[in-house]
Amino acid sequence: xxxxxxxxxxxxxxxxxxxxxxxxxxxxxxxxxxxxxxxxxxxxxxxxxxxxxxxxxxxxxxxxxxxxxxxxxxxxxxxxxxxxxxxxxxxxxxxxxxxxxxxxxxxxxxxxxxxxxxxxxxxxxxxxxxxxxxxxxxxxxxxxxxxxxxxxxxxxxxxxxxxxxxxxxxxxxxxxxxxxxxxxxxxxxxxxxxxxxxxxxxxxxxxxxxxxxxxxxxxxxxxxxxxxxxxxxxxxxxxxxxxxxxxxxxxxxxxxxxxxxxxxxxxxxxxxxxxxxxxxxxxxxxxxxxxxxxxxxxxxxxxxxxxxxxxxxxxxxxxxxxxxxxxxxxxxxxxxxxxxxxxxxxxxxxxxxxxxxxxxxxxxxxxxxxx
Amino acid sequence: xxxxxxxxxxxxxxxxxxxxxxxxxxxxxxxxxxxxxxxxxxxxxxxxxxxxxxxxxxxxxxxxxxxxxxxxxxxxxxxxxxxxxxxxxxxxxxxxxxxxxxxxxxxxxxxxxxxxxxxxxxxxxxxxxxxxxxxxxxxxxxxxxxxxxxxxxxxxxxxxxxxxxxxxxxxxxxxxxxxxxxxxxxxxxxxxxxxxxxx
Lengths: 371, 199
Fold this sequence. Notes:
The complex is a heterodimer. By secondary structure, chain A is α/β, with parallel strands linked by helices.
């Protein structure tokens, strides 16, 4: 399997970092420091190299250091013995540029080069939050391994945007109903491709999630169920036809993959309503672990893991499952406020980095056995 | 601020052109001030004349200095075939291929609700008028491959087929001379979808 790691991270005006150059070794890296030291920002910057987007669902604008008008994230990556330099520049007002090994590239070319999985406290929203969180998860994960999906998604959003404006124009008497037809055709064709890929992704992810949960928590049977916004293309086309008036009145497209969702059940009961706090954490952890397994087994690459303050909330058994995954990773970054709270066998195998606000991480100790 | 007022005005005017940022605008303005006065005057005259003497062809909508344009009035060209494009500049690209001997029709845009452009705002009525006499056998839709171009093509396809004229769409495919491995996935996927038997 190709080994993947980040060797050096350079930041300019990214969040709390005006400037940063950090040489980071492969293996396990624990970053510790008080609150607001910039631990999450560091993980966010590394994650930015995966998709040129924030894992915290923030606009690029929000990532710029206060008072500046652009930022840069530069990563020197090691992928399967090959050195790859990724540079992403963002200029205020939405001008984002990517260069790979010094050559200008379209953003879509970034996908799959440096896959990373972020897991943090907010991920509980994957279970308890609204469907938008789960669609975001789907789109991010599928895009990382499938550029055509990413393109379909861009097209679909554009079609949806234009179609909704047309619906509003028709309502205001500035357009005719028959003008919807070409947009309907495109909506159905592009939307179908998205529905199919999401179904296929969840189909291959579901058994991995179930098995991961069983290994970790035992007891109840976890199931992941896709709830598509429309059953199939025929039903969708019917609904569009029958619901024309409703859509015009609403001024928006009422059916399609933009309404997709997926849910978890434990022994057949909706986990978001019936599971305990501890069970819910275990479900989300299982999903994240399964995601890593999915990459390893289906895409044949082990992504870099970014674990944001997650150990303290897990019981011993679940910590064990996470440790097992970490052992398989080529590189992982973990943050914590208190190193003492981490399992000793994890600390012993890690580089420990102390972080103070706005500064480079300072190495305090390396893994046992290393010099 | 730093420049005399006339120079400021020139920089501002150049900066409004597409693809020209403030730095380039400044460089161009300084260049214009440095060249002989006659050269600057020629540029001004060229701009003015192009504006005054260039009109839209009343038949195809292309830029021309006489109406109908050279393409529409050329008896050597195939008047039974019309290629529909979004903008006049698309004609140049197609003409460079030297493969197509038919006529053109410029829509002057594509369907785009966000820009307030519907079928009414495009030169579709003019296209229908050209199909009237029954001399046209084929209409080739050569709008862009983005969602707006695609919507325009789908709309025209439906409209024109009711008139009994043959409607075709430009194929999506691989750039010629391009290696398969360098084509991006999206282009490849579309080329796959549009594959055909070897004749």
